[in-house]
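Single-chain item
Fold in token form
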Amino acid sequence: MGVKPAQSLTDQAYTTLEELIVTLQIAPGQAISEGELCEQTGFGRTPVREALQRLAQQHLVSIFPRRGMFVTEINVETQLQLLELRREIERLMVRLAARRRTEAEHLQFAEIAAAMEEAAETSDDERFMVLDNAFNTLVGTTCRNAFAQTSMEQWNPLSRRFWYRHHTLVGDLPRMAALHADIAWAIVAGDEEAAARASDLLVDYLTAFTRAALDAGH
């Protein structure tokens, strides 16, 4: 999918910590400290501190002066509010991506779509998580709207963590992966309306999934 630019130490620390939190290796509600995270990840204090500030802006970490830092709890109501925003912004972003994608991006979306279909067939949740992140990043780049891209980057980790927490209980991984593949194929085809419809169907599914998690008492 092309060569990615080298990440700064802060970006690397953020990527590492975000993955640990999203995949629940650092649990919701857990107290954390810069020193412990430095030891756990191998990064220095400055990259870890800057990464934590970014995670706090994304509501994955809460920082309390003189009390310490905690990973935020997972909240169903918060997720439902995010989905209201996602419906409108993602619809716009995939429409723009279908309109503006380059030939190289066309090929990247095709690769992701095919891989998503494979993940759907094999119910490979770890593979899906990697592809989901790659898909969101590519949509953010391809839409060529910095404000929409920033919004996606802001809320996407919370949504990914919610999915990771609940998908084995009330989720349908093949359906989730197939819905992502449908959006990607519509972008490949340059079909803005089909991309928008597929995006709405994905958010419909995620809303039902979130309410199922609420009804299950999780």
The chain has two domains: 9-71, 76-215.
